[in-house]
Amino acid sequence: MTVPTKPTSSAQADALGALGADLHAPVIDWFEENARDLPWRRAEAGSWGVMVSEFMLQQTPVNRVLPVYEQWLARWPRPADLAAEAPGEAVRAWGRLGYPRRALRLHGAAVAITERHGGDVPAEHAQLLALPGIGEYTAAAVASFAYGQRHAVLDTNVRRVFARAASGVQYPPNATTAAERKLARALLPDDERTASLWAAASMELGALICTAKNESCVRCPIASRCAWRLAGKPAHEGPPRRGQTYAGTDRQVRGRLLAVLREAVAPVPQSVLDRVWEEPVQRARALDGLVADGLAEPLAGGLYRLPLA
DNA sequence: TAGCCGTGGAG
DNA sequence: TCTCCAAGGCT
């Protein structure tokens, strides 16, 4: 007598399991034929290379990450190498990738790895999650891509693929829902090897084929099973997905201020920073924000620089 | 949890 | 020109 291993007897869960089984092979086969040759996918990248790439790829396109990634790994081939530097050097090397707090967090993660993990990127999901700048997605991605573990890796690409293929809608919800996590787990292959391939493959499918706009169903390996396509590709319903305005925001001002600090070799006088933005209240708020975030360091005499510690 | 946090390319 | 979007995390 075999005892059921599934915690639920839900027919829906069984149906999803069956759907997953139908999708795995075509998506993984497609991936092995069409995957981009990205440096962090090569064996030589190692777990540190994978982790660095994941930080840089948070909200930043692959093409822009590539050159910075190469320089970063050449300069800091191990976590301890980065940990030995001032955090401001990480911010400087980050260049114009955007969201420079990621650079600070990556530096902080390198310090923590050096202090708590003997200089090796931890393999356990919980330990990864405890590092600064690593959330649910990145922890799963590093554990899966660097260590071949079985995790539901839910990024914006995968969420879109699942929304379409399984749920039959054009776009996933704004924020990741419990239902999405459940779906991702239900679709996850049982064995580690296949699961980690599936994670990378489903993500690549979303990045290259099942894109947000101008999706290419004719090249999609699971078009014949896609619920959204079979339903006639109905347009997104509900509230418009909020767009981010940028011009005139504090973010723009912060960006300008930090650009000056990044390019300066010596501490910068307040008067120089003042030139980047006309409106004084917003300008001051932005600068204060950078200091509060640890991205800028105020010195005596109204001077500012990237953080030394 | 909704809002904040950069930047630049594509259509 | 303008809108949308790109391997999220944090509070």
Task: Quickly list its features.
single chain; 309 residues; mainly alpha; Endonuclease Iii, domain 2; Endonuclease III, domain 1; Arc Repressor Mutant, subunit A; 3 domains; three-stranded antiparallel β-sheet; 15 helices; globular; disordered N terminus; DNA-binding
Concise synopsis of the structure shown:
With 309 residues, this protein is mostly helical.
* CATH superfamily annotation of the largest domain: Hypothetical protein, domain 2
Number of domains: 3
Q: Report the C-alpha radius of gyration, rounded.
A: 22 Å
**Structural class given helices, strands, pairing?**
mainly alpha
By CATH, the topology of the largest domain is: Endonuclease III, domain 1
How far apart are the first and last residues' alpha carbons, in Å? 62 Å
Taken from the alpha-carbon principal axes, the silhouette is: globular
pLDDT below 50 for ≥5 consecutive residues: which ranges?
1-9
- Helix and strand pattern: HHHHHHHHHHHHHEHHEE
Sheet with the most strands: spatial strand order: 1-3-2
| Biggest sheet record | 3 strands, antiparallel
The CATH level-2 architecture of the largest domain is identified as Orthogonal Bundle
What amount of the residues lies in strands? Answer: under 5%
Average per-residue pLDDT, rounded, comes to 94
What proportion of the residues is helical, as a percent range?
40-55%
State the CATH class of the largest domain: Mainly Alpha
Question: Helical stretch count?
Answer: 15
Q: How many E strands?
A: 3
EC number: 3.2.2.31
InterPro entries: DNA_glycosylase, Endonuclease-III-like_CS2, HhH-GPD_domain, HhH_base_excis_C, HhH_motif, MIG/MutY
Protein name: Adenine DNA glycosylase
GO molecular function, one term: purine-specific mismatch base pair DNA N-glycosylase activity
